[in-house]
Structures are given as C-alpha cells and as structure tokens.
Specification:
Elements: H1 2-18, E1 26-37, E2 42-54, E3 57-73, E4 76-87, E5 100-115, E6 118-132, E7 137-152, E8 157-168, E9 174-186, E10 191-201, E11 206-216, H2 220-227
Parallel strand pairs: 1-11
Antiparallel strand pairs: 1-2, 2-3, 3-4, 4-5, 5-6, 6-7, 7-8, 8-9, 9-10, 10-11
C-alpha cells in the first residue's frame, strides 16, 4: 500500500508540474480609467479591466473598481472605494472549473510632486479582500505602494513608467511586483491613451503583459451647468 501511495503521489506531482501555467505566453490587459469631477473637492473614480492569459483571448480576470476621491489640494488625493473581481486562476481550461469571486474595499492616498520635467506620483493603498473560492471563503488584507513617473515629450506625447509592490498582511509578506513602461498620447484635453508593457512578478512565476489603457476624465460639473 505504501508503494502504491508513493506511485500515485509521484504521478500527481508530475501532472501538476506538467501543467501549463501560461508563463511563456504573452497576455494582455485592456483597461479603462476615469476620474470625473463632481464638486470642487470631490471626484468619482471609475475603472474596468479585462485581463487575458493570451493577447486575443483565454480569460484571466475581470476587475471593476470605483471610488470617491477627496482632493485635499492639487497634489494630494484621498480615496475610499470598492472593487469586484472575477478570476480564472488557471491558464488551461478545465471542465466545471470555478472562478474565484472577490469583493474588495480599499483606502488610498496619492501624493504628487514634480522634479524638473519629471512628474512623480506616490500611491499608497490598503485593501480588505473578501474572496469566495467556491468551496470556501477567506478574508485577506494587503498593502500596496506604487511609484509612478511621467515624462512629457511634447504637448501631445509622453512616457510613463511605474513600479508597484504588493505586501500581504498575513502569511507570506511578499505578494507580487509590477514593473510597467508605456508610451502615451493625449487625444483631447480630457482623454489619453497608453500602450505599454507590464512585467508581473510573483514568488515563483513571471508574466509578460501587453497593456492598452484609455483614460477619460471629463468634468461633470461643466455638463450639469450646460444642462441648466
């Protein structure tokens, strides 16, 4: 019986090892971000992200996020928000597989400063994560810090880069690290587009991701005044 158990265990380990994680495939994140001013000190954050293990398909994650921003001044913003996340955590497709569902509450603080031509942004975020794994549920807590750098090239074109670290507040401290580089273009006064590359590093795996992001930030106060 011991020998049979050992053989079965080795077979299971081999199957897990042989499982394709998608690490060698280029994935893609298609994203929308909006910040809409509703009062002198208040704005609404809206966000939708569609993430794929491959550039043209193989669903990985849907992320929907919103929040209320309080503008302390032009260089400091505090946010309280909520996010819903639906995640397929396997590259391969399995029959009757169950996606993870997550409801998330977050608190955020952004500080901005400028050094020469470079615009810096420091983003500090705390997250309370309520995750349904299908067979059980769990509550997890996480802290994130992102340092972002933007360099204007002209009035229309710019470069953007950031590094963000994720720290778990339980179990293993290191969660992941994201390194990002992008080329951006201002389409209108309130809209811009970024095309970039993301290296997503976890403890034992790395993912390469193409990113396409649209930013649309109209001032809703102007529309309400026009309607009056």
């Amino acid at each position: 019986m011991r020998k049979i158990f050992l053989v079965l265990a080795l077979m299971h380990f081999g199957m897990v090892q042989a499982q394709d994680t998608g690490e060698d495939d280029w994935g893609a994140w298609y994203m929308y971000f909006g910040t809409n001013q509703i009062a002198e000190k208040l704005s609404i954050h809206s966000e939708a992200q569609f993430r794929y293990y491959e550039t043209a398909g193989n669903f990985n994650q849907l992320l929907l996020r919103t929040g209320l921003n309080y503008h302390i001044n032009s260089n400091a913003i505090a946010t309280f928000g909520y996010a819903y996340i639906n995640t397929d955590n396997t590259f391969e497709e399995f029959e009757n597989e169950v996606n993870f569902k997550e409801n998330r509450i977050f608190q955020q603080f952004i500080l901005k400063n400028k050094v020469g031509e470079f615009n810096f942004e420091h983003r500090y975020r705390l997250e309370q994560r309520f995750i349904d794994f299908g067979s059980f549920t769990d509550t997890q807590h996480r802290a994130r810090y992102r340092l972002q750098l933007t360099l204007p090239l002209t009035d229309t074109f710019f470069l953007n880069a950031y590094d963000e670290v994720f720290l778990n507040l339980q179990d293993d401290i290191f969660g992941q690290n994201r390194l990002y580089f992008a080329f951006g273009v201002h389409i209108t006064e309130n809209a811009s587009l970024q095309v970039g590359y993301l290296k997503n590093h976890f403890n034992q795996i790395n993912y390469d991701r193409f990113q396409l992001a649209i930013f649309f930030n109209p001032d809703l106060r102007k529309k309400s005044k026009a309607a009056d």
